[in-house]
Amino acid sequence: MLIDIGPDNTNPPQVSRLRRSLMIALTIAMALALGWEIYLGIQARVKAAGKLRQATDRAAVLAVDVAMPQRAAPTQEVVLPGNTQAFIDSPIYARTNGYLRHWNVDIGARVKEGDLLAEIETPEIDQQLQQSRADLDTATANRDLAETTANRWQILQQSGSVSMQETDQAVSNLRAQKATVESNNANVHRLEDLQSFEKVYAPFDGVITARNTDIGDLINAGAGTATRELFHLAAIDKLRLYVAVPEVYSRAAEPGAKASLTLAEFPGQTFTGTLVRNANAIDVASRTLLTEVDVENPTGRLLPGAYVSVHLKLPQVVRTVTVPANALLFRSEGLRVAVVRSGQTVLVPVVIGRDFGSSVEVVSGLSPSEPVVLNPPDSLIGGVPVRVNSTEKP
């Protein structure tokens, strides 16, 4: 037999408490989730602000590219440009006026000292010389007559036949005639010298490098007018070169040192010269030392005016480094290179040697262990914080 006992209402308070606990737990969970989300948002903003501050500070520091100076090989010689010159290079002028009768040599001719180069026709000088010789003959005859007269008057004066005054006049006339003879004789010698200049001779052994006259040309010796050279003569048995040696290599310019010469027209051949003298003073404009090198040229293979590369041996090893050319700073106080020390720039004065185009040789002022700044801005100063860009290649 079944018994109906009705609805189960034995534990209603426990269910209510359970529901309230679940609601409270759900609320707390939602509050915690919202708080955590807020916390994460704040943290993200703090991190973003920190990154922005770091990026701003990083952008405020100048970023630079650097390169390490490369130690150059020990410099054993320095190569400098030069031009050959004849040991004696002289223009030949006329010393008398007239017309060119004949010339005997042309360009390229080798002549010896005393060889006849040209002849000048001087009709006026010839006539003047004839006249002066006639005047000399007249003066000589007058002197002889005065001498005979003076001798006679002196003999007669001893016997009292003539006065002392007349005798003195005869002796004085003799002295005057002798002076006239000497004057005319000097004039004859002067005109003879001028006439001797009709023939133009070579003053030394050499080669004719120019002829600026021809037969029939009017020759003017330069009395009140501009003169024109007849020939140009160069002694090429020995040549000289004037070389401007940079101040940093001036130790190589010691008199007596040997120099090697190379020319483009003689590939693979070397000529030897001797450094004979230098100016003993640095040219303040070019900072170079003027040096003379003499080269024996008995065969005449080397020509005056040729471009020559002069190799000078340095007396001792010079340690140098090379840096890119775009690392140089041209300032009013001199040449500078910016190096990075302890994260800051330092402007270092340097002295450069040879210029290789994309790079230059630095002979003093720079250590190979210090990185140099490439393409530094013109406004760069010392003590500026910098950030070195990474040089690693991907």
Tell me about this structure.
The structure is a single chain. The two termini are 94 Å apart. Mean pLDDT is 83; it is low at 1-6. Helix 2 packs antiparallel against helix 3. The chain has 3 helices and 22 strands. It has 4 domains: 18-60; 64-73 and 320-388, conserved putative lor/sdh protein from methanococcus maripaludis s2 fold (Beta Barrel), CATH 2.40.420.20; 78-84 and 236-317, Elongation Factor Tu (Ef-tu), domain 3, CATH 2.40.30.170; 91-211, Helix Hairpins (Orthogonal Bundle), CATH 1.10.287.470. With 394 residues, the chain is α+β, with helices and mostly antiparallel strands.
Overall geometry comes to: rod-shaped
CATH class of the largest domain: Mainly Alpha
Number of strands: 22
CATH topology of the largest domain: Helix Hairpins
The value of Rg in angstroms is 52 Å
SSE topology string: HEEEEEEHHEEEEEEEEEEEEEEEE
Give me the secondary-structure category. Answer: alpha+beta
Q: Helical residue percent?
A: 25-40%
